[in-house]
Amino acid sequence: LRGPFPLRKNALAKVLRGETTLEEFARVTGGL
Fold first, then answer.
1. What is the pLDDT of residue 32?
2. pLDDT score at 2
3. Is the pLDDT at 3 greater than 60, yes or no?
4. Which end of the chain is more exposed for a tag (fewer CB within 10 A), N or C?
5. Would you give the DSSP letter of residue 2?
6. Whose CA is closest to 28, among 2, 6, 1?
7. 20: left (phi over 0), alpha (psi -120 to 50) or beta
8. Is 30 exposed, middle or buried (0-12, 13-18, 19+ CB in 10 A)?
9. How many domains, in total, are found in the chain?
10. pTM for the whole thing?
11. Range of the structural domain that residue 16 is part of
């Protein structure tokens, strides 16, 4: 359960706080 999950969770949290764009989030998560 290691892998990309913590990174995705962190990226999503940043999107919700407005610290990163959905575009960046999509890039981090592999275009989810």
1. 56
2. 56
3. no
4. N
5. -
6. 6
7. beta
8. exposed
9. 1
10. 0.45
11. 1-32
